[in-house]
UniProtKB/TrEMBL annotation:
Full protein name: Regulatory helix-turn-helix protein, lysR family
Gene source species: Kosakonia oryziphila
InterPro entries: LysR-type_TF_proteobact-type, LysR_HTH_N, WH-like_DNA-bd_sf, WH_DNA-bd_sf
MF (Gene Ontology): DNA binding; DNA-binding transcription factor activity
The keyword DNA-binding is annotated on this UniProt entry: yes
A Pfam family assignment: HTH_1
Assigned keywords, A-Z: DNA-binding, Transcription, Transcription regulation
Length: 126
């Protein structure tokens, strides 16, 4: 199973305290939650949770692993946020040539507004 998805499921089970609550939050079946946890425990060779019919309690190793999962999940989320910001930002060089009258009356005011939206764009005007 996908390690990142398994970590996400494990973190949600730990946060919510039960597999059924985690399944509702993650929009997957409780059986699927159990499969993700079992696959993760098998991969690690360690139990992450002590299970009862009503609750899941973290083992000592599970608590330590949860901290590492949170760190990894936060870093991935931060990287995605950074990538989204870079995709939405403007940069580069925009060359414009215009007659003086048009440049003075129309282009310069419009470029001032554009400059506020895209400060990383270099705009030599001739």
């Amino acid at each position: 199973m996908d390690l990142f998805r398994s970590m996400t499921v494990f973190a949600e089970v730990a946060r919510s305290g039960s597999m059924s609550a985690a399944s509702r939050k993650l929009l997957i079946t409780p059986a699927m939650v159990g499969q993700y946890i079992a696959a993760l425990e098998e991969r690690l060779g360690m139990r992450l949770l002590n299970r009862t019919t009503r609750k899941q309690k973290l083992t000592d190793f599970g608590l330590s692993y949860l901290e590492q999962c949170h760190d990894i999940l936060e870093r991935v989320a931060a990287s995605e946020t950074q990538a989204e910001g870079l995709q939405q930002s403007f940069g580069g060089k925009l060359r414009l040539t215009a007659p003086v009258s048009f440049g003075t009356e129309c282009l310069i005011p419009a470029l001032q507004n554009y400059r506020k939206m895209a400060p990383d764009v270099v705009m030599p005007v001739s």
